[in-house]
Specification:
Blueprint lengths: L1 H23 L2 E6 L17 H6 L2 E6 L2 E9 L4 E4 L4 E8 L3 E9 L3 E3 L5 E9 L3 E4 L5 E5 L2 E2 L4 E5 L4 E5 L2 E3 L6 E3 L4 E5 L2 E3 L6 E4 L4 E5 L2 E3 L6 E4 L9 E5 L2 E3 L4 E6 L10 H5 E3 L3 E3 L4 E3 L7 H8 L2 H14 L3 H54 L3 H7 L3 H27 L3 H30 L3 H9 L1
Helix pairs in contact: 6-8, 6-9, 8-9
Length: 461
């Protein structure tokens, strides 16, 4: 009986495997042709819809021209390839490792799933609220594509790594490319024009982004708008070079603070490095005054190497006149004084960083240990004898040293004139001052705390 059952079970398993095989094994390449019926997915007998190919777990789907009014959710590591931009789908969601090539998405746009890596090559995207939208991390590659006539062209959210090259981003109702904070990568050799807001808008905080060799023109706002937000106030690393920025409604390059707040001293200069850009014919000028870039940075952003060398030569020649020489001397003196002050402030900065490190890592640690010793005392120890006298004595000495360090730091900060060096140190000093005041308050509380035996000694002694 047992052997008979085993034989039946083996036959049942074989039937299940045989019938279930199509569901457990992914197909390789499949073909789709609109309207085809009863196909098995090969080139001569294609499926009629992309959904049918996905149902059969095809890993590479080749689609002939036609209107496929489908919302395509492309699974992990699946490739979708059209015949031309006459291969049209309505909407697309791309999961990790998916690739799309040589087709058009009209109406619903492209959404990159959270944290997904996705590639779009030679894709036309139009008529969507947002052309391409990302979320989370992962890498987005968009090459040789057209992102035109949408609400917003790109919406690249926090944390994405991007490679956007050789695309047209034209005639969108909002920004051509809207980039949130902490986006890394390259935006290169794109044509970005006639968008109803800015060509490129990017939040500087934590971004590590190269914007180079793009044509950015005739956008209603600015060509490139770099933005500061209080919520992401960290420095960024933007490299802007080789771009043509012309005919934009506001500035070639603008610095904006949409949510209010005040960037730290030198924020824009420390976050942006320029190479030469051709910037001309913009409504409000080359660079916004909000950026506070130095003359050197302005020239580096707008002049070629040859022009900069020529300017330097001409400046040398102008020094031949006495008046020019005097003016140059005054400028040089002021610059020398500024550099001397900066050098002095740099030395102070190093000294104060050491002091703050001593306060933070040594004194605060010692104070914490003494307070912990006091807190370990039992209720009755505290009631009869009060806080440990040795700990109180140590605390008094350490707090005195703490105070002296803070007073020394405050005095040295007052001597500093270079704001971008001073700003961070000032904030750290204020934090340490608050910590010291709280520790002093707690020390005084323990020192005044009632204890029975010391009270008797004082009363009868």
């Amino acid at each position: 009986m047992k052997n008979n059952f085993s034989e039946k079970f083996k036959w049942l398993a074989l039937v299940v495997v045989f019938l279930g095989w199509p569901f457990f094994v992914s197909a390789g390449s499949c073909w789709v042709d609109k309207g085809a019926k009863h196909g098995d997915g090969n080139k001569k007998s294609p499926y009629g819809t992309i959904a049918e190919a996905l149902d059969h777990h095809c890993r590479e789907i080749k689609v002939k021209d036609g209107q496929y009014l489908e919302k395509v959710i492309l699974p992990k590591n699946v490739k979708l390839k059209g015949e031309s931009h006459k291969t049209v789908i309505k909407e697309l969601v791309m999961k990790n490792g998916s690739e799309v090539e040589n087709l058009a998405v009209k109406g619903g746009g492209v959404e990159i799933a959270k944290d997904a890596k996705a590639d779009l090559l030679n894709v036309e995207i139009s008529g969507a609220h947002i052309g391409i939208k990302t979320s989370g991390r992962g890498k987005l590659t968009v090459r040789d594509s057209e992102i035109n006539d949408n609400g917003k062209g790109f919406y690249l959210q926090y944390g994405k790594d991007v490679d956007i090259r050789g695309n047209e981003v034209i005639n969108n109702e909002e920004e051509g490319i809207d980039i949130r904070a902490n986006v890394d990568g390259v935006i290169e050799n794109n044509h970005i024009s006639n968008n109803k807001e800015g060509g490129i808008e990017v939040i500087v905080g934590k971004s590590d982004l190269t914007i180079r060799n793009n044509i950015i023109k005739n956008n209603k706002a600015s060509g490139i708008a770099i933005q500061f937000y209080k919520s992401t106030k960290d420095l960024g690393a933007l490299r802007i070079a080789g771009n043509v920025l012309s005919g934009n409604g506001n500035y070639g390059i603008d610095c904006k603070i949409p949510s209010g707040g005040k960037p730290s001293a030198g924020y824009w200069s420390q976050s942006v490095v320029f190479g030469y850009n051709k910037i001309e014919g913009n409504g409000k000028g080359v660079l916004s005054k909000t950026c506070s870039f130095s003359k050197e940075e302005f020239l580096r952003a707008t002049k070629t190497e040859e022009e900069l060398k020529k300017m330097a030569t001409e400046k040398e020649e102008e020094k031949n006149t006495e008046e020019e020489k005097q003016q140059t001397d005054e400028i040089d003196l002021a610059e020398q004084q500024r550099l001397q002050q900066r050098e002095k402030d740099w030395e102070i900065k190093i000294d104060l960083e050491d002091k703050l490190e001593t306060v933070a890592e040594t004194l605060r640690k010692k104070e914490k240990e003494e307070f912990e010793q006091i807190k370990k005392q039992s209720f009755w120890q505290m009631f009869f004898w009060g806080p440990n006298k040795e700990s109180l004595k140590n605390l008094e000495e350490e707090l005195a040293e703490h105070r002296q360090n803070l007073e020394y730091i405050q005095k040295k900060l007052a001597e500093m004139k270079t704001e971008d060096l001073k700003g961070v140190l000032q904030s750290r000093w204020e934090e340490e001052q608050k910590i010291y005041e709280n520790s002093l308050k707690l020390f005084r509380f323990y020192k005044r705390k009632f204890a029975l035996i010391p009270w008797f000694k004082k009363l009868f002694g």
